[in-house]
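I am writing to request your help with a piece of structural work I have in hand. I set the record out below, with my sincere thanks for your time.
___
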Amino acid sequence: MSVCESSRALRGAKPLGLAATILIMCGLVLAAPAVADRNQCAPAGVDSATGLPADLTEAGAIGQENDYTTPTVEPLSSADSGKLGLGTPGVLTVGTLSDAPPSICIDPTGKFSGFDNQLLIAVAGKLGLQVRFFSTDFSGLLAQVATRRFDVGSASIKATDKRRRTVAFSNGYDFGYYSLVVPPGSPIKKFSDLAGGQRIGVVQGTVEESYVVDTLHLQPVKYPGFATLYNSLKMRQIDAWVAPSTLAGNVMKPGDPAVIVANAFSPGNFVAYAVARDNQPLIDALNSGLDAVIADGTWAGLYSQWVPRNLPPGWKPGSKAAPAPKLPDFVAIAASHHSKPVGPAAPKSTLAQLRDSFFDWDMYREAIPVLLTVGLPNTMILTNSALVIGLVLGMVLAIAGSSHSRWLRWPARVYTDVFRGLPEVVIILIIGMGIGPLVGGLTHNNPYPLGIAALGCMAAAYIGEILRAGIQSVDPGQLEASRALGFSYSAAMRLVVIPQGIRRVLPALVNQAISLLKASALVYFLGLIAQQRELFQVGRDLNAQTGNLSPLVAAGVFYLILTIPLTHLVNYIDARLRRGRAAAKPDEPAPVATSTFTQEMT
């Protein structure tokens, strides 16, 4: 059923504002103008080449030898795919991101792409392996690699000494430096201008965060993703952004109210693929495959298309024995194609910035079909499956919690306290990353069932308390009367007490279903393939592809379409239960029962 058909079917149950919203969405989908191509997850090509910034500062000698780069690699022929410790034989399971183009991103067709991922596909091809990508959050990626949830982490990860305590790394395939991005007219001109009291934005868990905290000794404002951070900078909600240089150059468009004022290079911390520390065979194989794609020119071709910029003097990818890649003269190309730089746009009013960020109609036309075909079905599957688990397990907890036996009552109490006391995302990560490896054979390392299980376990704790309150609200005389009529305890509970208790708490149960619907957005922390994304993740990915927040607003509208009818259903049920059976009118006399004997006497 299309969204337009849904609007006609639900028109009677929804308020006028919601119906109007759905009609607007229909018009956006059916509108004739084509969607503007603003895909940031696409190779910009060699014509977009740049040289290294002239103001690049460094913490040490650029190109110094790194102790972790291997002198040579094993022969490619010695790599045995059966001995690489892969979760699925012959398949390289990769944890990656979707919001950091051009290095790691997801394109409009739903495929994971970017320089890092395309290079990894080429390396895996040399090893005779297939690649399966899963989207996750950077803050949990290294832990997921360390616990073998993923065989490899591919997310422009800098191989720092701190991170080597958790995972191991391949040889470097890219370098990276930081860019300092500020709004136009900012007094901040260099990294040394950053000071306490300023709002300095970084993405949580990245090497940029470590740079600000450990090197600059400042406390930054941490964001979960790059797109949200950059929009905060454009809205002047932060004073500066310490960004990966390649990403900053990709997301910043001519006329954006943002400028790069300084750059810093961190030598020795090359960009590499993360692998579990105890999986040396896979590390050796990746190093062999990387040297092979460097030798045959694949690395240079991908680099020139995705991130065409000069390499630092003395630095090259791969092992120390790998040949230096043959790259075009990016400086000459940049000089021949780039005209006078376009400066930042004139300051816009707050309303104009809000309109550009949240109400881009082209973005709505692009987002709605994907939200309908991918996001909505997965959200409904996650929510409804978890709701069934929550109702069944919640009923067990409610009965156990109402029992007179402490052996039943206390375990139910402990379960409820734990699952209601922990944040939802912590429960999802614990179940996904803690239980996931134990049941990998049953789930085929697919986090989707684990996400449903986590949501169901969380819902059960709340539903159990709701049902217990409903059961205990029933007058004890109901149970006693049932027992007096010959019902067993279990039959009396099943046929008399529990139905009355559920009837009393129906509004609270529907409210819990609404909360569960919104909590389904947290499953993306476990890592999902492109076709498993729910509404929030689809909107987040489109936001990363385009740098515009309108796809997230479109996802929010879908949540409203789902939750508003449920909210009104709660109100209806609550009113119906409060009203009950219509009472007799006050002015009507009560019927008087007269006996036959009395009538005969009169």
Observations:
- Confidence is low (pLDDT under 50) at residues 1-37, 59-65, 590-602.
- The longest helix spans residues 361-402.
